[in-house]
Amino acid sequence: MERLKVSTARFENRSGDKNYNLSVIDKLSRKAAEEGQMQLRFMNKRNLFYTYMHK
To answer: Is residue 1 assigned to a domain?
Structure first.
């Protein structure tokens, strides 16, 4: 059975600045993938999760 590596991330978003927020998500996602993470979850202020799967 293959082990699944999962991480969570949280960052200070800029309200209304979609380009900035997506650039931070992209940067953190790339770093996690380089470190072998297969799933990265981003938590927002309402404790909801956005999940990004590395393929």
So the answer is: no
